Amino acid sequence: MRKFVLGALGAGAVILGSAPALAQASPQAEMGTPAQVLELSKAAISLRSVRGDGNQTKAVAQLFSDTLVAGGWSRNDIEITPLDDTAYLIATWHGSDPALGPIVISAHMDVVEAKPEDWERDPFTPVVENGYLYGRGASDTKFDAVLAMVSLIRLRQSGFRPKRSIVIAYSGDEETTMITSKMIAERLKNAKLVLNVDGASGALDEKTGKPAFWSWQGAEKTYADFQLVVTNDGGHSSTPRDDNAIAQLSTALARIAAYRFTPEVNDITRDYFGKAAAFESDPLRAAAMRAFAQDPADKAAIAVLRGDPAMIGKIGTTCVPTMVEGGHALNALPQRATANVNCRIFPGHAKDAIIAELKMVADQPEVQFSEINPEYVVAAPASPFDRDFVAAATRAVHAAFGEIPIIASQASGASDSMWYRALGVPSYGASGNFMKDSDDYSHGLNERVPLGNIAPGMKYYDTLLRELAAK
After folding, report:
1. DSSP state of 346
2. 275 alpha carbon, distance to own chain's centre
3. Residues 6+ apart with CB under 8 A from 221
């Protein structure tokens, strides 16, 4: 999943902290240490956990299971559940009060495909260079999964005894079908809350490399693909008729592309616009962000924000044509034309309602609408603006990274969090990872993560988990 970023904060190449010693991590790195984070991250990245032939997600799950056993977990408290060519992992550290809902640490073990011929380095051969760890999954999201897990191992070794159980729940197909994601959420629907380490993160200043702000994610838009189809009898191109499938579909697509859904805010995005404005270099855009937070019907603010592609998706639902196909011969009237419209739906709106709105906008009765793969996504409300969680996360961030601003955010979707939220379980993107916007290559070439995150990231998880699991 793409993590939340605000945009460039300058230019430069300094990274948070210093980690050259970690590049020489021993194969026998001590449990619960920064060196183990690097060693285990490299081992996980080297496993090609990509859907399809040769999928090694099960091997990643076994690697993590063995690590947890060495860190003090009983085999009986760890489950690896195979499903087709993948698997998911659930590991429980039992709290002293089993009646309390657990704290869940969520991440995923699978990664998107990466072709070695396209990369400067082999994507599944982890490399440490200049303080960065390179490889597929470095930022999405094997490093984050390992950082949280090793931090938990260290917390257990410290003698801490949680009141609430702490559950590690790592899915195996978040990047594709999300079937294991849904299964895990169903099993853990009694959770107090979920900390999704594959959601939100901290931002490093581009010039100084120092932490600029940290964002937590409390909501995400619903992902949906809608297929539009027009069919008719066709005929010879020399005898054109008004009911041309391609022309009718094109008219509908042009209207949808030009349509703008009503702008809106929720508690999460209101916090984002109000606070993120301080990091906006353009005074006009900063003023528009503040004005929109106060009044989402402010026409002047909306006009400014819609002029920025990075902001359009933050102020409401978006639907855009992404694929089109039609016709069967150069000299024949088309018998069929199809298109895909991709939507990112603001929380609180059902997909059926969006289809109904699109049909009204298209105003072409011949166009038939249907959803593609509806079983892979679910509409979910925003998590509540939980002030206890925000306070705990703020203390953890400040203890680890200093007194920096804390900003709420809403993702464009989709992550494992949606399955929990759909069941009424609050889920918050809360990674202990900081990056520059310019270093974010999730799903792209030469994916990497700065190793300076390790030590402060472990401090962050230690502080956060101690507080959340103690009451």
Report:
1. P
2. 21
3. 313, 317, 344, 345, 346, 347, 410, 411, 412, 413
Report pLDDT for 16.
41
pLDDT at 71 over 50: yes
- Check: CB of residue 167 under 8 Å from CB of residue 103: yes
Least Cα distance to 155 among 430, 455, 471, 466 occurs for 466
Paired strand residues for 254: none
The tokens of 421 are what?
A: 């939220």
pLDDT for residue 198: 93
Q: Are 195 and 103 in contact (CB under 8 A)?
A: yes
What percentage of residues in the chain have a pLDDT greater than 70? 94
Chain centroid to Cα 116, Å, comes to: 24
What are the phi and psi torsion angles at 45 (to 5°)?
A: -60, -35
pLDDT above 60 (res 17)? no
The stretches of 277-385 forming alpha helices (DSSP H) are 283-294, 299-306, 309-312, 351-362
Q: Which two tokens mark 432?
A: 């202990």
Residues 6+ apart with CB under 8 A from 130: none
Distance between CA 332 and CA 54 in Å, rounded?
44
Provide the edge-to-edge strand list for the sheet that holds 222-231: 318-326, 336-345, 222-231, 368-372
User: Would you tell me how many other CB atoms lie within 10 Å of the CB of residue 325?
Assistant: 12
- What does the domain layout of the chain look like in residue ranges? 20-220+382-469, 222-261+317-345+348-375
Which residue, 418, 465, 346, 358, is CA-closest to 1?
Answer: 418
**Could you give the CA distance from residue 323 to residue 345 in angstroms, rounded to a whole number?**
19
20-220+382-469 — its CATH code? Answer: 3.40.630.10
Q: What is the dihedral of CA 232, 233, 237, 239, to 10 degrees?
A: -100
Direct distance between the N- and C-terminal alpha carbons of the chain, in angstroms, rounded to an integer = 31
Residue 1, pLDDT score? 53
Tokens of 181: 């994601």
Give backbone dihedrals phi and psi of 74, rounded to 5 degrees, phi first: -85, 145
CATH number, domain 222-261+317-345+348-375? 3.30.70.360
